[in-house]
Amino acid sequence: MAASCERPIILPLSNPSRLVEVDPNDANDWTEGKALLATGSPFPPAKSPNGKDYVIAECNNALIYPGLGFGAILAQSLHMTDSMIIAGARRLAALSPAISDPDNALLPDFADAPKVNFEVGVAVAEQAIIEGTARVNWSKDQVREEASKKIWLPVYGQYIYDEQGQK
How many CA atoms lie within 13 A of 74 on its CB side? Predict the structure, then answer.
């Protein structure tokens, strides 16, 4: 793949890991560290030719679907248009760690999903306003501020198991 493409994107997405189409370490070796890799299951980093660890991104729909929904709800859009989905995907692409360092992962870390989906949601709502499918009375420039008022963060209290059930 690297013979005809400077940085091929290889996405072995099968789950579980034992069923993956190609081991990302092999793909990394075969392309001499040129491949941008993301898998459907977690994998350890691969070694780049320069000796650095190349983080294998986990391609999970939790990095975009919540943001698509949040953006549509935020804008009160009656439709999820192709251009709204493309705006969300472009915002996700702009958050790729590989943009600033080619040895970094293709996608943001799964632990950053809440921040990533906030950004995706903002992009989707902005696009809904631009194309006129939004039913809110604010401008594209107000989306980020409005989104920050509506975001929900799951925070759970710590529960302690009580064998007697009396606490």
Answer: 34
Bin 32: left if φ > 0, else alpha if -120 < ψ < 50, else beta: left
- What does the alpha-carbon distance between residue 48 and residue 102 come to, in Å, rounded to a whole number? 10
Q: Are 45 and 53 in contact (CB under 8 A)?
A: yes
Say how many C-beta atoms besides its own lie within 10 A of residue 99's C-beta.
Answer: 11
Tens-digit pLDDT profile for residues 100-129: 988 889 999 988 999 999 999 999 999 999
pLDDT tens profile 87-104: 999 999 999 999 998 888
Q: Are 49 and 33 in contact (CB under 8 A)?
A: yes
Taking the C-alpha atoms of residue 39 and residue 13, their distance in angstroms, rounded to an integer, is 5
